[in-house]
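agent> Task received from the user: take the single chain below, predict its 3D structure, and emit structure tokens. No templates, no multimer pairing.
agent> Plan: (1) validate residues, (2) run structure prediction, (3) serialize to tokens, (4) report one or two observations.
agent> Step 1 OK, no nonstandard residues flagged.
tool_call: predict_structure(input=
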Amino acid sequence: MTNAIKLVLFDMDNVLCAYDRPTRVAYLAELAGTTREAVQAAIWDSGFELLGDSGTLDAADYLRGFGECIGYPLSLEEWVEARRRSMQPDRAMLDIAGRLRNTVDIAVLTNNTALVADHIDTLLPELRPLFGTRIYTSAQFKTAKPDPHCYRRCLSELDTRPEAVLFVDDLAANVAGAREAGLLAHRHTSVESFRQSLSEHGLLRE
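)
tool_result: status=success, residues=206
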């Protein structure tokens, strides 16, 4: 098919890197002297993390609230270290991104607090050489995927029309939200299926 795609927009966790939340939770629980179940309940099951992802809490309030939720005065360095331990780069996907940037623009849109973008060079240093400054967190846009406004605000920042974008995410809800916003979208299940999708769009040739 004719290649009308000008930008490939990547999710980060479980697309460009493997994200292991239990590893993060275990480290936080050890710091706080509590159980993994208590940390999981306080941050994720309670909806607190979404307050950071959606930009409802700014970075400082998010970090302070995070510590209050787990009952421990968590420092920024400890928060970053917990996040870093949970992330392993997906070399195959990063290689594909590197090949794509020779012919189209590439960028990242991840549901995360602004702290992730601020400290991405520590968390996942492989991203900066590929994506430069085009690494966006949902908190920057005051909403989170799958809200269609999140994608549209990101694309406004990138000055790119939705119909010229292929978005890739591992979560079905986020793929559906992207399509509602007018983007083409692929649900990431494997490197092989992503390569096939890119080939169908005329973006990747072996």
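agent> Step 4: summary for the user.
The chain has two domains: 7-18+88-200, 21-85.
agent> Done.
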